[in-house]
Every structure is written in C-alpha cells, then in structure tokens.
Predict the 3D structure of the following.
Amino acid sequence: MNNIAKNNKIKYLIILHIEFLLFSLGGVCSKLAAQNQFLSFWWLFWYAQVLLNLAVYAIVWQQIIKHLPLTTAYANKAIGIVWGVLWGIVFFGEQIKWNMIVGALIVIAGVILVVESDE
C-alpha cells in the first residue's frame, strides 16, 4: 500500500471512529428519553436527538463505506461497546468492573487485527 492510500485509509478510519463516538451518544439520548414521562417535552427532546443522530449516522456511514472495505467498517462498529461503557460511567455513574475492561480490550484487539489484515 502506498503512502497516499495509507494516509487516505487512516483519514477515513479516524472519521469512522468519530462517527461511532457520535452514534454512541444516541444511546445516551435514548436512556435520557426513557427517564422522562412518555410524550413529555423532555421525552420528545431526547427522542428527537436519537432520530437526528440516526439520520446523520446513516448519511456519514454511506460516505465512509465508499472509501473503506466493508469488512473494516463493520469490524470497527464493535468499538461502540467501549463507548457505551465509557458513557455509562460518565453520564450515569455506573461502576466499571474488571470484566468490562477485559471485554473492551478484547474488542479493541479484534478491531486492530481486522484492520491490519485488510492492508
């Protein structure tokens, strides 16, 4: 792989991971919506954020898969699990356990293996 192609792949991998970070925030909005009364202002607000998040995700995802192998893009989706653990701690005060750390490390290792094998 030449330097231009490698730099292009790295650029789209960074965009992909930013996209997954933002997409994972949809889960936070969903949980915040669930904490409010059905059809109340705050339920509608948070649910609208979920829908907006999904719409942006769909558009960006279509652009990313034009530039990355589908196997690479889908393998990287697993990183959302890591973001979910992080958001649980940050936004909801959930406790991190050793098995969560081990699971996150396994996911990260798997993503790295798949991305490296696509070169």
The helical segments are 3-34, 41-64, 70-76, 79-92, 98-117. The mean pLDDT is 89.
